[in-house]
Amino acid sequence: MDNNADSKTHKLSTQALGAVMMALQEALLNELDIVPILKNFDLVETQEGLMVKNPPTVRFSDNSAITNTDLENMVK
Fold it and tell me: How would you class 23 by CB atoms within 10 Å of its CB: exposed for 0-12, middle for 13-18, buried for 19 or more?
């Protein structure tokens, strides 16, 4: 990481932390890699901190197995 004086630090908002936790829970429950979903997060800077513009969704009614493609599509 560059220690340039122009660098700016960012914090995750409560919403972004919730999005990370949802992604983690989904990946753990389905024994899938969390990296694809995190890589596809679109982040925006707000006064509250970084927010995820495309948080993951959770399926409640579909009992089929969730695949890595499903995880990637959750944030598109």
Answer: buried
Q: Output the pTM of the full model.
A: 0.68
Q: What is the pLDDT of residue 39?
A: 94
- In this structure, are residues 57 and 74 in contact, taking their beta carbons and an 8 Å threshold? yes
Q: For residue 56, give Cα distances in angstroms to 2, 9, 16, 70.
A: 31, 24, 10, 10
Q: pLDDT digit string (tens) for 3-41?
A: 666 788 999 999 999 999 999 988 888 888 999 989 999
